[in-house]
Hints:
The protein has helices at residues 33-46, 118-127, 148-158, 165-169, 176-187, 196-209, 220-224, 232-247; strands at residues 3-9, 18-24, 69-70, 73-74, 96-100, 109-111, 114-115. By secondary structure, it is an alpha+beta fold. It folds into two domains: 3-111, Ubiquitin-like (UB roll), CATH 3.10.20; 118-247, Alpha-helical ferredoxin (Fumarate Reductase Iron-sulfur Protein, Chain B, domain 2). The longest helix has 16 residues, at 232-247. The N and C termini lie far apart (60 Å).
Amino acid sequence: MNLTLKVWRQKNAKDKGQMVEYKVTEISEHMSFLEMMDVLNEQLINSGDEPVAFDHDCREGICGMCSMYINGEAHGPDRGVTTCQLHMRMFKDGDTITIEPFRAKAFPVIKDLVVDRMSFERIQQAGGFISVNTSGNTQDANSIPISKEAADEAMDAATCIGCGACVATCKNSSAMLFVGAKVSQYALLPQGQVEATERVLNMVAQMDAEGFGNCTNTGACEVECPKGISLENIARMNREYLSASLKG
């Protein structure tokens, strides 16, 4: 395939940035989107230009690093995939593809397509952990009875990879699906009950402090989430927050 790419180029956080057009040729439909970006960067390097900066790590849909806004959609036109799992067969020969970084106040652009998502880390640090008894009387986790339904729901919430697609696709740049998933994975398990009240209050407070917007109730976050995190986690977080507020 021969493609036209319109890529956001921004030298640093203070630079205004602009869209720059590139041509790439002989792109295989079997390539991943990041492999196509590798071809572009090799072309730029060979011509003496600076390559496009973009985040990536495992390239297996696990790390959540590959945050690209492709043709107006987080992670591109496919569903249930990250950018590294998006294949070029989703596009046609001669297509023009627009590639931008995730846009949110809490995700400032560092360079080109790379954004700073440390706001997610700070939310995690505010309450995304459990206390463990290390006094010598530690209870074996396997001896704690947990219903299969609760275990399954907790595991579903825990599959969130923190990629930020929910924030990028929400018109309010809300992080409630991410925070809801992180609250839920502990709220559903007995091990998470020790800090249950403190956790949800602290994580929601940190989410607000980071500048994320409120939920729009449109469900766009669930649609774009590569791991299919359910909106039910937002509802659970709201219930946990209300309960914690009344206890406080």
